[in-house]
Design brief:
4 strands; about 35% helix; disordered C terminus
């Protein structure tokens, strides 16, 4: 059986319109707290990502939101016609550099498997040097 490919895109609504980002499903991350603004003393991407992951793990409501998103993406990938191997899911927030990026990376970790390959493209971070998430 061919491995299903899910492409996760992240972007910021202040930089581009929804209609300019092609996706089968869009996830609004603006409902989540912006960890970078909410007191991150160290503004590196790695620090923001780790802080955000801890925030989701420690908050039952956020953990439920995240689990619903992951289950929904799995369902979309499963229901997607087999002759169309690519599923595109877009995550967006205001700037497209913190919340959407962290959620997409966490979703990738959660849903990637032998049957599902996940690629992530951060549209607002293209051209910037960032380290792989740990």
């Amino acid at each position: 059986m061919k491995r299903k490919l899910i492409k996760l895109l992240t972007y910021g609504v202040k930089h581009r319109e929804h209609s300019k980002v092609e996706a089968h499903l869009r996830v609004d991350c603006r409902v989540l707290p912006n960890i970078f603004v909410a007191g991150s003393e160290n503004g590196t991407f790695e620090h923001v990502h780790r802080t955000f992951a801890r925030c989701i793990a420690d908050n039952r409501r956020l953990a439920g939101w995240f689990e619903t998103i992951a289950v929904g993406i799995r369902a979309v990938a499963t229901a997607h016609p087999p002759h169309l191997p690519l599923v595109k899911i877009a995550f967006f927030c205001i700037g497209g550099r913190h919340r959407s990026v962290s959620v997409a990376e966490l979703v990738k970790q959660k849903i990637e498997s032998d049957q599902v390959k996940v690629e992530v493209q951060h549209l607002e971070l293209e051209g910037r040097v960032i380290k792989q998430w740990i």
